[in-house]
Specification:
With 241 residues, the protein is α/β, with parallel strands linked by helices. A 5-stranded mixed β-sheet has the order 5-1-6-13-7, with helices on both faces. It is 39% helix and 23% strand.
Length: 241
Amino acid sequence: MKKLLLAAVLAGVAMSASAKEITFAMEPSYPPFELTNEKGEIVGFDVDVANAICKEIEATCHFKAQSFDALIPSLIKGRGGFDAAISAIDITEARAKQVDFSDAYYESSASFVAVKDKVTLETAKKVGVQNGTTYQQYVNAEAKQYAPSSYASLQDAILDLKNGRIDIIFGDTDVLRNMFDKNPELAFFGEKVTDKRYFNNGLGIAVKKGKAELIADLNKGLAAIKANGEYQKIYDKWMTK
């Protein structure tokens, strides 16, 4: 009996040791990709995608909040207590030199929004962007006709937009569209931006360089959920409201 119990314990330890656990970090004020619900839980498109991937590769997912501008620096330095970042992160050439990315899991685009009928292309001067994003990088380098103001979250930027402290906001098209329900006075402004140096390469899961096995697992799981229809279900749940 003792031998059987010992064998069972050892088997349990072996299973525990071999089980995969992946902690994902994200900035949870960016609906529909990630947000905090009334229970204080992080939910959203990215969370469901990560959970579906983990199910396919038989891993346990954990999630933690982290400011967006700290995600990649924390991965590079191995700090923050997480293995990967999934937070609507655009895959760019500059970022790919710092971290490795999974295959793209979402096709992104960039747009401006403004209060309806309040400004024109000629009168807009001040633009709000989220700190640490490719949208901030684009405005600083390519849209110098605007004076940029950086925000920890787009919700803070919207408050300033509605109070007239800035004229427009620049960000992810789907994230901005998601805000129209609660802010019906807002509308898209001008044309979408499609500069491949910054946008339209898709969103990827970021991982510290040298973690080839983790990248392979993430790509395997992502391919599986795209093939079996689970990804489409998640997309329909969050992106077609």
